[in-house]
Amino acid sequence: MNRYETMADAELMLRLSQRDKNARSYIYDKYFAPLFSHAKNMLGSDTYAKDVVHDAFFSMLARKMRFLSERQLKAFLYTCVQNNIITQFHRKKRFQSHLQDVMQRSNISIDNQELDILYNNIVDEAIKEMPEKMGRIFKMSFKEYLDAKEIAERVGISEEGVKKHLYNGSLKLRAWIRMRFFLCLMLMILLLSK
């Protein structure tokens, strides 16, 4: 039995606020599966679900908040996941709306399978642009669906190191997609119009 399972709420929250790696790992291990399940049910995608759950944990770490109880922490994580899901819906809706508008003006038709292929190609290209180790770790997480512990064992670094690489990889992926979004969209329109 993990000593954090029997630890008093106040003590666990104190250790979490003191950046105790084991406390963070315990919270991650305890809440990842239910948060992921909730996000996957809402989004219908493993990749998007992992992304929103990782964002929730990174948000928790980045804000350096002091939670008074595990219940408050749980509420924070679920709220972050829910907000991230809503953001994903809005992004997807904006993307699809813009794409449909462009396609209507260009007389082009495209289905969801082609959009998924395009998305996967964009992610693959972004991974190639990452530093080698980060790209490898990111690929293991988002393509092979390995958790941080499995990746840490394969790569030979700590779970915290894996989580940091995933966080930085997510930031790089978002920046890469933002910079190339319109370029990729225009390229796709040109290719489909031929």
Contiguous uncertain segments of 5+ residues:
none
Order of helices and strands: HHHHHHHH
Task: Report the strand count.
Answer: 0
- Gap between N and C termini: 62 Å
How many structural domains in the coordinates? 2
How many DSSP H or I helices?
A: 8
Return the average pLDDT rounded to an integer: 78
Strand content: under 5%
Radius of gyration: 19 Å
Give me the secondary-structure category: mainly alpha
The assigned CATH architecture of the largest domain is Orthogonal Bundle
Briefly, what CATH class of the largest domain? Mainly Alpha
Task: Describe the structure using short key phrases.
Rna Polymerase Sigma Factor, Chain: A; 194 residues; mainly alpha; 2 domains; 8 helices; Arc Repressor Mutant, subunit A
Compile the SSE list and pairings.
Blueprint lengths: L8 H9 L3 H23 L2 H18 L6 H37 L5 H18 L2 H11 L5 H8 L3 H35 L1
Helix pairs in contact: 2-3, 2-4, 3-4, 5-6, 5-8, 6-8, 7-8
Q: Can you put this structure into words, describing what you see?
A:
With 194 residues, the protein is mainly alpha-helical. The protein folds into 2 domains: 1-107, Orthogonal Bundle (Rna Polymerase Sigma Factor, Chain: A), CATH 1.10.1740; 109-194, Orthogonal Bundle (Arc Repressor Mutant, subunit A), CATH 1.10.10. The protein is built from 8 helices and no strands. Helix 5 packs antiparallel against helix 6, helix 6 packs across helix 8 and helix 7 (148-155) crosses helix 8. It is globular and about 60 Å long. The model has no long low-confidence stretch (mean pLDDT 78).
